[in-house]
Amino acid sequence: MTPDEDLAEIERNHEMGVEASMLYWNNDFEKARRILDPIMETPRGMLEEACLSLSEDILKGSDKRSLIAKFQAAGDAAETSMEHKQSLYKKFSGIFKSNNNKMVRLQVLEHKLVIADSLLDASLGHLQSNNYITGCLGMRKAWSAYTQLEELVNQCQRDVPQCIIDGYKFGLGAFHLCLSVLPHSVIVVLRIAGINIHPAKGIEYLTSVVNGKGVRYPVASLMLLGFYLCSPSGYIAPKLDDAKSILNNTVVDFPANRTFTVFDAYYHRKKGDLKHALEVVTTVTGGGGEADNIPLFLKVEFLFAMFNFDACQSTAESLLGSEYVDSSFAHYQQLLFILSGCCYITGDTPKGDRILATVSTDSVYRRAMQNRSGTFSKTGMLLSPILYMILNRDINHLDDSNTQLLRQHLNIQSRRVDPNDGYCSCLMKLANGILQQNVDMLEAALGCKKQFPILAALAAYELGGIKFQSNQFSAAKSYLSAASKIDTKFDSLSKRISVAMDQVAAKL
User: Fold this and answer.
1) Measured between alpha carbons, how far is 11 from 22 in angstroms, rounded to an integer?
2) Contacts of 416 (CB under 8 A, 6+ apart)
3) Is the separation of the CB atoms in 14 and 215 below 8 Å?
4) How far is CA 366 from CA 27, 120, 195, 333, 361, in A?
5) CB of 344 closer than 8 Å to CB of 384
6) What number of other Cβ atoms are within 10 A of residue 79's Cβ?
7) How far apart are CA 163 and CA 214, in angstroms?
8) Residue 376: beta bridge partners?
9) Cα(56)–Cα(291) distance, integer angstroms
10) Percent of the chain with pLDDT over 90
11) Alpha helix segments (H runs only) across 161-292
12) Stretch 24-51: mean pLDDT, rounded?
């Protein structure tokens, strides 16, 4: 085979991978497998079939071990296919400087990409299966493989197909972006291990992959959407316009894939338009199976935040009664808390008591309502939607109509709660302080840190935001420092504080 023929084969295999990925991310798995069938014996074909299975797993659920084995097999095949040129493989510098080894260069690059992708995907499978040591070691190997691949491509400076360039950009972009949302303490450890995280580079690389619409276009889109819409943004507004530009393409390219529609609902949630978010997510509920869990849970959340308690309760009870939902469901505790809140607010206190008793005492939704001595405010459940929106920071970006609904609920429930209840008093000060951007109210909530540390830490964080927006960066740092010293065991808030700390530090 000549170098030009070898290049054509690599590009053809990638094109088949692209065609298959557009199909399987649209849930047409059977047709995608037929597309891949002619290259199933090649490392590239094995890798893409494993990626197909991963997409199928996201939709239907399957055994992670079989997925891991597929990715490992693809990587092993790529290694094995180069054994006959092992001596050349070990001398990369000579290969990449020689004009006479174009075919070898292309084969090495393609196989290195398959190996790196396989390491990454297998490692993610191990992490999802709670095999953290194996997963982390594999991630380190994948990082090294992608980094080496980038160096090799830079050495070539010619004759490198775009699919290879997009491949290493996807891998390194995924690392930079995904690892950037880890806790600050973990990022410090990664830096010690030689992995330096640059989120801006991750966004740049993944955006390039998305724009190229190659084989990793769907996954790169999901990663960017997750970063823009779900990761903590600190005191700087998330890039919703960038998220929308991706969604404008993916909802058209993948109309049958519920994941992109869910992100579209998240987009409207971030815009504060809960009515539109509810309409979007409702379009992908009712299909049945495990894939209904997240859309239905979001529907429960949106109904709760819109104070439509009857519809929220019936949807929550339906989801909890599903054969696909048990205590292992990622949002199980939130679901119980919301259902309990609906019961209290609609007057079914005995049922609310029973459900609330099943909410884990480790759940932040329950811990936020109890003081340091463990005393729990049941009357505070009348304000449970307010607490829920504060903990998830939905309260910060509601549109005018939803803000009005929230104020109405506060006014109604403030007449029902015990005026001497310390928790209710603190929560209402916190809520009104956020809504009105009132420093005095937030300071009063911060003063409750001995009784209600989670509410106080949230107040300190919000105070830091007010100071940040008014360019009082030293004061913002002081409030963030105060928030970080309050022991909340609330990971999401800790990450918000860490992100905001970095933003403040950049201003000082």
Assistant:
1) 16
2) 379, 382
3) yes
4) 39, 37, 37, 9, 6
5) yes
6) 17
7) 7
8) 370
9) 11
10) 45
11) 162-179, 184-192, 199-212, 217-230, 240-253, 258-270, 274-282
12) 86
CB 239 within 8 A of CB 230: no
CA distances from 43 to 2, 87, 111, 164, 486 (A): 20, 20, 8, 14, 51
Three-class DSSP category at 304: helix
Greatest Cα pair distance in the chain? 84
Structural tokens at position 452: 């209600």
Give the tokens for residue 327.
């205590």
d(CA 8, CA 503): 47
CB neighbours of residue 223 within 10 Å: 21
Residue with tokens 């049922």: 351
Tens of pLDDT, residue by residue over 189-240, are 767 766 677 888 999 999 999 999 998 999 899 999 999 998 888 899 888 9
C-beta separation of 202 from 187 below 8 A: no
Q: Which of 209, 89, 90, 96 is nearest to 158 (CA)?
A: 96
Tell me: the pLDDT tens digits for 271-318?
999 999 999 999 988 767 777 889 999 999 999 999 999 999 999 999
